[in-house]
Amino acid sequence: MGLTFLALMLMLILAACGGGDSNEEESTDSSGEEGSEESNSEGPEIGQEELTQPYVAWARETISTHMLAALLEKVGYTVDLKQVEAGAMWSSVADGSADFHTSAWLPATHAPYWEQYSEDIVKVKQVLDSAPLALAVPSYMDVTSVEDLKGNEELGESVNWTITGIDPGAGIMQNTEEAMEEYGLENWELTSSSEAAMLTELQAAVENEEPIIVPLWKPHWIFGTMELTMLEDPEEIYGGEGDQIFTVARDGLEEDAPRAYKVMEQYNEDYDMLNEMMPKVHAEDQDPAEVVQEFIDNNPDLVDEWLEGVPTE
Fold first, then answer.
1. What is the pLDDT of residue 242?
2. Residue 285's Cα: distance from chain center in Å?
3. CB burial class (10 A; 0-12, 13-18, 19+) of residue 268?
4. Thinking of the domain 50-131+243-306, which architecture would CATH place it in?
5. I need a surface site. Which of 5, 66, 82, 118 has the fewest CB within 10 A?
6. What's the pLDDT tens digit per position in 109-141?
7. Model confidence at 35, in pLDDT bands (50, 70, 90)?
8. Per-residue pLDDT tens for 190-223?
9. What are the Cα distances from residue 136, in Å, to 24, 89, 139, 200?
10. Which fold has domain 133-230?
11. How far apart are CA 219 and CA 53, in angstroms?
12. 296 exposed, middle or buried (CB, 10 Å; 0-12, 13-18, 19+)?
């Protein structure tokens, strides 16, 4: 009995020691995992998790809107994209019913919107420099300047004294109305429709080598498909060397969604990336979300720059 009792006691002691080692190891592993989670969560807080991003379905804006939405979803947000007209894009961010947009063309094109809403909207980041706007014609037309339109009977009659425009709320339409007044184009009419409708008319005219005058801008995929001339604008109604494009947000978003704001501060663009994606969406009719995701998958180093210091979900 005594020996049996001593043996049992020894087994209990050894088991207790072994259990201690197991617990200690488990504790170490758990601590390591917790440390890893803490490391992954370093950076700005997510804050408001649902964001609304309005946009106009212009060539560049379709790409940039889906790109920024995809990046924000990688870091934990749900982004609701709303396709609207230009006026609603600006007013919804200003009144707080939307959170940000990527389409502020300043200082010229969207000057009226900025003057109206600048107290409620902040510039987050300039994402693209040198975004010129102008009236444009097919290069086979003998026109080089907006001044060439004044009193030009032959040209005017060939296009029914019409400049074929886009959606009426677009800044370039307001620029064109001002240009018509500044350059004395009293006989001319600016029609409005949409960018897609304007491009359809432009493509049909070029296919038949017919004259047409349209408002256009860069970056735009159409310049990769046909030879076009942007008309000189001596009075710089369209902004001279070109606008810069900014991401803008509602006042208070930086405090409400710090992680999203940091991504916006680090995101930028260049002509190469836009020229790679725009034709796929607008000329080949691919899904913009899929085109953007393909770019993200193929450019991990660039994405790392945009998301530096930001935890991903």
1. 84
2. 18
3. middle
4. 3-Layer(aba) Sandwich (3.40)
5. 5
6. 899 999 999 999 999 999 999 899 999 999 999
7. very low
8. 999 999 999 999 999 999 999 999 999 999 999 9
9. 74, 26, 9, 15
10. D-Maltodextrin-Binding Protein; domain 2 (3.40.190)
11. 21
12. middle
Q: Which residue's structure tokens are 């001044």? A: 147
pLDDT category at 41 given cuts 50, 70, 90 is low
Which of 281, 280, 273, 282 lies closest to 302 in space, CA to CA?
273
CA–CA distance from 56 to each of 88, 133, 282 (Å)? 9, 17, 14
DSSP 208-268: TT----EEEESS-GGGGTS-EEEPB-TT-TT-TT-EEEEEEEETTHHHH-HHHHHHHHH--
Q: Is there a cis peptide before residue 112, judged by omega within 30 degrees of 0?
A: no
**Is 0.85 topped by the overall pTM?**
no
**Residue ranges per domain, the chain?**
50-131+243-306, 133-230
DSSP-based helix, strand, coil % in the chain, nearest 5: 50, 20, 30
Which residue is listed with tokens 């080089």?
Answer: 144
Structure tokens at 160: 């029914």
